[in-house]
Amino acid sequence: MQHKKILVVDDDPAIREILATQLSRLHYRTIVASDGEEAVDAFKKEKPDLILMDLLMPRLDGLLATQKIRESEKKGSRVPILFLTARESSQNKLSSVISGGDDFVAKPVTLQELTERVETALRRAKSWKKTKKA
Q1: Rounded Cα gap, residues 74 and 70, in angstroms
Q2: Exposed/middle/buried for 70, CB within 10 Å: 0-12, 13-18, 19+?
Q3: How far is CA 3 from CA 10, 25, 44, 96, 133, in A?
Q4: What is the per-residue pLDDT across 68-77, written as a single tens digit (0 to 9) for each?
Q5: Average pLDDT across the chain, whole number
Q6: CATH level 3 topology of 5-133
Q7: Which distant-in-sequence residues (6+ apart) come within 8 Å of 47 by Cβ?
Q8: DSSP string covering the chain, please?
């Protein structure tokens, strides 16, 4: 069985470590990036199955990084991007959708909620790919 690869993007090293540890316990492979620029580079090099993206980061925020990732995706493919942020507001939720995000999760997030959101996003992506091939 091939383990899904998840890109964790957050400027806080403790949060990156916690998320990577939790995801590895769930048998996901993780890659980490500390800002949006690193995220775009990691996306192109690593081809993750899903991205957990912080909203506010230095150099390039999560919204702009998501837009750049969406622009660089091959036609017919779409990697799920879940925004994780402590700044939950209707404006941030709207901005995340407009930039190309697929879901919005408030920090702190429980392991159960993280698991459910990641698994749901991966299932949707799988069914979306099947629909595109048909």
Answers
A1: 9
A2: middle
A3: 22, 12, 19, 27, 22
A4: 999 999 887 8
A5: 88
A6: Rossmann fold (3.40.50)
A7: 5
A8: -PPPEEEEE-S-HHHHHHHHHHHHHTT-EEEEESSHHHHHHHHHHH--SEEEEESS-SSS-HHHHHHHHHHHSPTT----EEEEES---HHHHHHHHHHT-SEEEESS--HHHHHHHHHHHHHHHHHHHHHHH-
